[in-house]
User: Fold this.
Amino acid sequence: MDWHERRVAARRRAVGKYDAAEAEAYGKRQGLGWLTAEEESAYLTDLGRVVRIASGASVLDVGAGTGVMCSILRRLPGIELTALEPSTAMLAILQAQSELANVRAINGFCDEPQDQDRFAAARFDAIVSRQVVNGLFDPLLAFRHWHHWLKPAGIVVVIDGLYGRDGWAGRWEEEVDALPLSASQSMASTPYLLEACGFRIEAVERMATVNALPTTRTPRYVVIARKTTR
Ligand SMILES: C[S@@+](CC[C@H](N)C(=O)[O-])C[C@H]1O[C@@H](n2cnc3c(N)ncnc32)[C@H](O)[C@@H]1O
Assistant:
């Protein structure tokens, strides 16, 4: 198989690894699949420096997993939350949480060609993702879809980690050379691609409060990007 054939064969493979056992293990890992109230506050502190999500905003959590970002965002007043998650096992853990009962949960991907019509154009005020961009199979197509789903001047909030190759161990190791942003130890790659997809970058910075938590092993950073109309 040449590079292109190997890449096509890898579509959906990584997400397929979030089966029931993996989802349960992820959901039990503090700092990853669940956060303490103090850890949630740390995220809000770092986000509060760079972005304001207004009351009444319609927010999409892409790759919502076990619901960590939804749990953080529901602490903001009046947010209408939608969770998009391709792993049914991850989504089941999110949906089992009574405090997330108001979240509209949708099972699916964000970066496949047919996903453009998953939501109406200009449906959301904000699209957030935490620890998802490094695992996207097609980041450029994902960012184009996010642009399409956002209202004019809507914002993207990407939280990710400065992951290296060594973080992809065991059965995840084969994904490191299939996923374009898997081991991007630079904070430049994501804003560069977002800008190419029609976003204006408003902030790129390390999450100082989150990175000071004992449960944060790999430094986290945040990118804020606003939709411009082309
Ligand atoms: C490391 S988990 C992060 C989950 C959650 N955002 C969090 O902060 O804990 C990555 C999640 O992204 C999801 N994901 C991977 N590829 C995706 C895609 N193409 N579209 C939407 N979600 C995706 C996975 O199924 C998984 O639940």
About this structure: The pocket of S-adenosylmethionine is lined by residues 15, 18, 33, 62-66, 68-69, 84-87, 90, 109-111, 130-132, 135-137 (CB under 6 Å). The mean pLDDT is 97. The CA atoms of residues 136 and 210 lie 23 Å apart.
